[in-house]
Amino acid sequence: MLATLVDQPFSKPHWVYEEKYDGIRLLAYKEGDKVSLISRNGIDRTNGFPAIAADIARLAPRTLALDGEAVIFDAKNVTHFQLLQQGKGRPRYAVFDCLYADGRDLRNQPLAARREALEQAVKPTATILLAERLSSDGLEAFHIATRRKLEGVIAKNAASPYIEGRSAEWLKFKVHQEDEFVIGGFTEPAGARHYFGALLLGIYSGDELRYVGKVGSGFDEKTLQALHSKFERLIRTDSPFSTNIIERGATFVAPKLVAQISFTEWTKERKLRHPVFLGLRDDKDPKEVAESA
Q1: What is the Cα–Cα distance from 68 to 250, expressed in whole angstroms?
Q2: Which is the most buried residue in 48, 141, 221, 281, by most CB within 10 A?
Q3: CA distances from 39 to 70, 153, 168, 170 (A)
């Protein structure tokens, strides 16, 4: 179940407001002692999070299906996708939904009942925590998230069933600007920079990839080399973008890779201001990286 982005925070009766975590979305499946951690696009990530898998295996229910986010917290108890990418810290699993428990399919139950089942089935451990509910009031939740410098807030209708795909029953509003963008090319390196200068970024508007600007910061030498090796297999002669791109020394690539980018704001021309590269998202399909309706 995926949340729909909204522009402004709000408050509604019978909705709950949870911390929005900045990590990798994972479904956790437990059958006896066997545990699998699967990303949104079907990648098995179990071997990447052995401590989380081991703690889930020790939970009391024989069968479980959980929904949550693999995260790493910084010293101020804030999650950052970049820490997870760089392996800096202890990964934890912030679990916010329970879809199955001991043979019971809970997906058609309201969120309130699923949360109750979750709290009965999952006891926090060193690597597992229950998603934090910030406030019963959405505006207060937003103020808390802003004060703590969290990524944002997920608002959920407490009466909603679990609906596969994008839903208006889960909504999200962000505190700071951070999002995924499709890589459509790169520029030549300059000065002491090796491999490439900047990434050319886009976002889908219908079937067209709209150019939103370039990002040239956030890379170390290892990242530059690793990205360039991926680009070599994707180079193409024509631009994947819907408009003409005027960038000196641009090389275009097939739009197969998704980058996580932080930025300060959108310009009037709908370009990113002060973007910084945070990492690649192998759990996101490029076609999902689309402008909100």
Answers
A1: 39
A2: 141
A3: 10, 21, 22, 19
Q: What is the pLDDT of residues 142-191, one digit of tens each?
A: 989 988 989 899 999 999 999 999 999 999 988 877 889 999 999 999 88
Query: Measuring CA to CA, which residue among 254, 256, 259 is closest to residue 239?
Result: 254
CA 60 from chain centre, in angstroms, equals 29
Amino acid (1-letter code) at residue 61? P
Question: Of 202, 222, 226, which is closest to residue 213 (Cα–Cα)?
Answer: 202
Q: Kindly give the pairing relationship between strand 92-101 and strand 128-130.
A: parallel
Which H or E element spans position 156?
A: strand 152-157
Residue 73, Cα to own-chain centre: how many angstroms? 15
What are the residues whose beta carbons fall under 8 Å from the beta carbon of 246, sequence distance 6 or more?
none
CA-based nearest residue to 109, from 162, 155, 64: 162
pLDDT number for residue 86: 87
Confidence of residue 274 (pLDDT cuts 50, 70, 90): confident
pTM, full prediction? 0.75
Residue 293, pLDDT score: 53
Cβ atoms 30, 59 nearer than 8 A:
yes
Return the exposure string of 150-169: e unless at least 16 CB atoms fall within 10 Å of the residue's CB, then b.
Answer: bbbbbbbbbebbbeeeebeb
In the structure encoding, which two tokens stand for residue 40, read together? 């949104």
Active site residues: 20
CA distance 214 to 19: 30
Q: Quickly tell me which residue has 């973007």 as its tokens.
A: 275
Q: Distance from CA of residue 184 to its chain's centroid?
A: 20
Phi and psi at 228, nearest 5°, equal -60, -35
Beta strands in 42-151 (DSSP E): 63-71, 92-101, 104-105, 128-130, 133-135
